[in-house]
Amino acid sequence: MVKREGIGAKLTRAFVLQVMAISAAVFAGIYVTNTIVQDSLVQEALDSEARHYWKLFDTNPTQNLPDTSNLRGYIAIGEDYSKVPTTLVQYVPGSHRIEYDGTQPILHITDHRGARLFLLFASDQVSDLAFYFGILPLSLALLLIYGLSYFAYRLTHRAVSPIIQMADYFERFDFEGDRSPTLNLEPIRASADTEVAAMIDAIGRFESRLERFIERERIFTRDASHELRTPIAVFKGSLDLLERKSEQFAQEQEIFSRMRRTVQDMESLIETLLLLAREDELQIPDSGQIMNEAIGESVERLRPLAEKNNNTIHFIDGAKLEVQAPERVVQILVTNLVRNSINYTKGGTVNVSVNETSVRVIDTGIGMTPEDLKSAFEPFFRAETGRDMSSGHGLGLSIVKRLARQFQWTISAESTPEQGTSVIVSFNES
Fold it and tell me: With bands split at pLDDT 50, 70 and 90, how would you rate the model's confidence at 21?
């Protein structure tokens, strides 16, 4: 099963990506601002100062050098560097950030007609200006965007919160274990908007309709089974009377035997349908019960049917099997499994083995293809290769599946055509 990402996780991821993108953009803006102000603009200003000084110098070689709080100039005529601080002499023309008297000014050097001009610019104030008018506003804007983004995230999360609550509720709800599943979405409705409330109403209507369908099916199954009991009982009584009065010729014995097996099958089917129709009324024991004897009795009742098909049936009582379920439920489950194996095995073997946690039924019958095995537990399914071997209705394995699902047991089956089938019912989850 593919693990899907929830809405909440998607919103959180979108918010984080948005914050990261905004942060990257703002930091890029800060870097660009700092670069433009401190490098490009300062460089352009110093170039302009140098050109202006050289213009004045050409007119008046004794022109005073720049001397302000931020800019100081030094000049060397020819090879005379006596008026230039020794620290500055080593640098070549161009712009340099240097260490000078405990500060980091920008040194701008230009040459003109045999003279060299040294402009020493204190960039601290420029850095302060860049911070106050560039970095600080952008940082405040970043914080504001963070706040607005988080506020929008919270509003969006609150808007979809009822949907997330519904998804969590459905994920935790035990549809299989609860025999009368009733959804309670009213607490979610309190914080739901119009669309979510409409969804809750629609789910409620669907739930009511589904309950009516289930109840109608249960009532029909129960009533139909009750109504069928009477004619079956009459038929069985008439059969007993005929057997007592008949001279019991061999041909008549075979007819009566076939009729009695049919009656017994119908009785078993009706009892099973009644049991399933009253699934909500089943009384589950407080503790486990040993099922070995009950399973053995079910196998023995089917021995005549196995012998009729020239089959050998074995009951292997390997270990005590304790199951927390009504004994009759386990008997019906085993009976349907064993009868199915007998019906599809001719002149072979059917083994029923019991261990501490499971029951296994193995036959040497016709087996099933992988495609047939996938549908074997569906109602009214009968494999094409076995349609001439069984006169059943295709409900046996479907009943087994329904009982196992109701009591949270697990079923596994393996089959090979022309070799046989193995079915295991594990009760360890009960």
Answer: confident
